[in-house]
Amino acid sequence: MIQQLTPVLIIGIIVSYFLVLVGISYFTGKDAGNENFFLAGRKSNWVLVAIGMVGASLSGVTFISIPGVVGAGGANQAFSYMQMVMGYFAGYIFIALVLMPMYYRLGLTSIYTYLEQRFGFYAYKTGAAYFLLSRVVGASFRLYLVAIVLQQFVLAPFGVPFGVTVFTTIALIWVYTFRGGINTIVWTDTLQTISMMTAVIFAIFAIGNALETNVSGLITMVRNSDYGQMFFFENGWSDPNNFFKQFISGALITVVMTGLDQDMMQKNLSCPNIKDAQKNMFTFSFILVFANLIFLTLGALLYIYAANVGIEIPENPDLLFPQIALQHLSPAIGILFMLGLLAAAYSSADSALTALTTSFCIDFLDFEKSELPPAQQRRTRFKVHLGFSALLFTLIMIFNAVNNESVITQLFVFAGYTYGPLLGLFAFGTLTKLRISEFWVIPVCIAAPIITFFIVYLAKNNYGFDFGFMNIALNGLLTFAGLIAISYKSYDEPEVDPKTPTEG
Q: What is the pLDDT of residues 470-492, one digit of tens each?
């Protein structure tokens, strides 16, 4: 076992990496105005946005959990996750060709203002509220992953409590995002994507060296192992890894967790025009497919390596990659792993914190309609940013107390309940010309997730049918049906398509 990578050295790596991010923040956050914080003045380079979105999409969940679940059995075992990635790709194409042109035509800062123009006040606030709930919990899941690794392998030897670890992690993110916002994140996410992928690729080569084989030999090992199966058709829809279930779920999850998510769309809307934004989306989606394939390959190799050298698989599979990288491979790989882990954490959490701040300021504090002077708006934005940081800390501590499953599974199952109403609202808005009785939209959007939960529970316990991540489709369908029930025809349609100078 290699132990030269001490906690003191790891802390030095964290401090150095953080100083680099602060340096980027200093140069990109000089203009602290709302336009730069929210949309980077709509001047972001599409190449940087595409690279940065890869890191934000992968996050700490993919960096640790995806390699871990490859050999854990159950949902996403072996290479079955690639079936969902294929669905992701289809979803990204839909976003680029359908949703993004609409957002640019409307000149949106918060994408949920579409709901106000289409349906009115209550639908708008309901959609924005579901985003805040979804993103707060999702960001907490991701940060929790990083915190438990830092706690176990770095700070626990010093007797540091878990709460202090979480607080420090969030504080570092807050420091370099509170001024520049999305203008800073476009640059830091690019750095963090490169750091993350470098760590994974070098880990694969290190395992190859340890097993005394080349890349071709590693591919053969994976193909001949128990972890190489990609497509699952045999057991029908009762199988959580069924191809059609995974593909459809992946497409729907992408539409809601990217196309209907302020966090991911905010980066796209910071591009100068729709053509650049679409180039970004197409490039990003191709890269993401190959990036996920590399992560799954690493996962299979981690299990093969563990079996070859007699490493006991940890009870929590999320800890397999950090255990091998920090304790069994060279210190150089350990350093790269820590950089990749930090990059994975910050690339998702920093943009989430900025998007939450943006959504709350635009959707609930009505910044775009406010007559408050810019200086007062900046002070309010600062307080909101700080408040969401405190909320993330609280939720991570709660999640730590109750967590008992792989984080990747929890994240997507939860997303099915919180993003489902968003899917139903936007689908109803784009696929129909009907209006709705506005007062009833909130009961419909609350009832749909509750009914979904009971249907999923009864189907699994009474009939052995596991909806898996398809709960998002059921939830969206129930929301859509509820909106039809409260709808009516209108012969005086509102204008939701004004052309703006931002259209390329």
A: 788 889 999 999 999 999 876 55
